[in-house]
Every structure is written in C-alpha cells, then in structure tokens.
C-alpha cells in the first residue's frame, strides 16, 4: 500500500506565539519525555545562539542583574531551542542563556522544538517584541528579513506581532537612514519618533547629531526638519492630513508606542483618543497595557 503524501507543514505566520510553541502543561516536569514540548535540562555548553537573532544589543548591567537572580532562584522560564547538528540552537531566550553562563550554571531548562528557519525567526521576533526588548532598528531588520527571505507581506507581519501594517511599514523605512543614524537609534540616543522624522531629511546625519547634542524632543526634531532645510518630499500618512501639527505629532508618538493606528479629536472642552485594532489579539494587548498587565 502506498504511503499517503505528507501534508505540507503550515507556516507559523499568524498563529501567535503560544500556537507556534505548542501548549506546555504547567505540570510538565523538568526532564520529562512525554512529547516534543516537554521541558528538558540541557547543558549550557551544548547550546549556541542563532546568528539571525533579531536582538543584537545586550546590556551588561541588566545581564548581571539577571545572572544574580538566576543564582538565587534558578531559571524560572525555560528557553526555547531547536536541534542543530549535535548541538541545540536558541530560538527564544538568548538573554537567559547568557545570564546562566554568567551565573555558572551547567544546565538550563529548555523546550526543544523542530522549527524551520522561518518559524525560528518568527518566534524570536514575537518573543522579543512582547518583552519590548528590541530597539526600532533591530525590529525593522527582523521584519526586512521575513519580507525578503521568506516572502511575508507587511500586512501578514502586522498580524503576527499584533501591530498595524503602517507600523511595520514605518519601521522598514527606518532602514533607509544612514548607518550612523541607525547606530544612534540602536544605542538609544534617538527614539523611533526621532528616526521617523529624520527619514524625510536630506541631511539626516547632520540633523541627528544636532538632535542629540541639543537634546531635542520628537516634536522639536520634526520642526527642525521642516525649518526650511531641504527635505525629501513625502506626503503625510493618511489620517494626519487634517490634524494640526501638534496633534499629528502626538498621534504619531502614540502609534509608535502601541504599533496601532491612533487618532485624536481635540476640542476646547475635551476630546477623544481612538485606538484602532484589527484582531482580538490586538484588543487583548491594548487591555493588558491599559491595566498594567504584562505584555
């Protein structure tokens, strides 16, 4: 009897982090062998980082604090790895692995999953975004790789990370900035709002230095770009055309923070702020942030 053809493995795109990882029972013992999602203890020396990890900057002070916590309490949340030759490659949790090395642990709890290259990048991106661990350039570079190497659309990426398509598009545009300005964003000298304003400038490197030197706000940076110096002409995003400059700037700042389309209607006696979501996951994210819950 001929074997039935194997169904094509679906991409993880759009299924969310829990769906990609699989449901791991809270009662699953460390070292269990009941399934692919069991938590196992793996030698730290047998694990290596993924070269395509979106996160590039690890603060030494924060690593030292996490290492001290691990020494006192152990690794509370397992990392996620995939088989890689005779070793394991990190999918999510490189910071915990690095801190475990500093804490001189010999083993670390891990969930082993057989991810494809695309799924590996998706999970790493989602986890880092949910923990708010990526700077804008790191996030943009991960989006670019998913678009160029794996054929994901901006709209589909937005669904994966619970952000608007315009948020993904705005981040990708930051990669048009000169390398020096991108480094300043990665180092935290400039925010995403600053970078978005500088993308339209003809001399972004010079203006970026001025912004940092003078400690300008995002709104002040936008005014600097619009102050008569030559700029790359670009129409304002839809939704901002009818708003005055200050309200439009505030809308953009809130959109950068939430990854959602934000509109503000202001009147002398008050107004309204509207957050637009396109899925229940995005609504859940809004509720968690407003309630102070962990995202």
TrEMBL record:
InterPro entries: Chromosome_partition/occlusion, HTH_ParB/Spo0J, ParB/RepB/Spo0J, ParB/Sulfiredoxin_sf, ParB_dimer_C, ParB_N. Keywords: Chromosome partition, DNA-binding. GO terms for biological process: chromosome segregation; positive regulation of sporulation resulting in formation of a cellular spore. GO terms for cellular component: chromosome. It holds the Pfam family ParB_N. Residues 1-38 are annotated as: Disordered. Residues 40-129 form the ParB-like N-terminal domain. GO terms for molecular function: DNA binding. The keyword DNA-binding applies. SUPFAM superfamilies: KorB DNA-binding domain-like, ParB/Sulfiredoxin. Involved in chromosome partition. Localize to both poles of the predivisional cell following completion of DNA replication. Binds to the DNA origin of replication. Belongs to the ParB family. This is ParB/RepB/Spo0J family partition protein. It comes from Allosphingosinicella ginsenosidimutans.
């Amino acid at each position: 009897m001929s074997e039935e053809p194997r169904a094509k493995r679906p991409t993880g795109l759009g299924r969310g982090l829990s769906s990609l990882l699989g449901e791991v029972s809270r009662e699953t013992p460390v070292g269990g062998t009941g399934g692919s999602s069991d938590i196992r203890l793996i030698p730290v020396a047998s694990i290596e980082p993924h070269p395509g990890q979106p996160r590039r900057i690890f603060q030494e002070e924060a690593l030292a604090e996490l290492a001290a916590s691990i020494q006192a309490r152990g690794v509370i949340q397992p990392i996620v790895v995939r088989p890689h030759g005779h070793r394991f490659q990190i999918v999510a949790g490189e910071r915990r692995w690095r801190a475990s090395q500093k804490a001189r642990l010999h083993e670390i709890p891990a969930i082993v999953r057989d991810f494809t290259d695309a799924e590996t990048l998706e999970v790493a991106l989602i986890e880092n975004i949910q923990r708010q661990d990526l700077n804008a350039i790191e996030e943009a570079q991960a989006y670019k790789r998913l678009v160029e190497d794996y054929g994901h659309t901006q709209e589909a990426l937005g669904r994966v990370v619970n952000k608007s398509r315009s948020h993904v598009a705005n981040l990708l545009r930051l990669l048009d900035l000169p390398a020096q300005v991108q480094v300043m964003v990665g180092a935290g000298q400039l925010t995403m709002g600053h970078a978005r304003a500088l993308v339209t400038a003809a001399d972004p490197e010079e203006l970026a230095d001025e912004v940092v030197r003078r400690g300008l706000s995002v709104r002040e940076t936008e005014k600097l770009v619009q102050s008569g110096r030559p700029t790359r002409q670009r129409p304002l995003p839809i939704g901002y055309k009818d708003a005055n400059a200050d309200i439009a700037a505030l809308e953009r700042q809130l959109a950068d923070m939430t990854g959602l389309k934000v509109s503000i209607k202001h009147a002398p006696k008050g107004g309204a702020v509207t957050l637009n979501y396109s899925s229940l996951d995005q609504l859940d994210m809004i509720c968690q942030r407003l309630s102070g819950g962990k995202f």
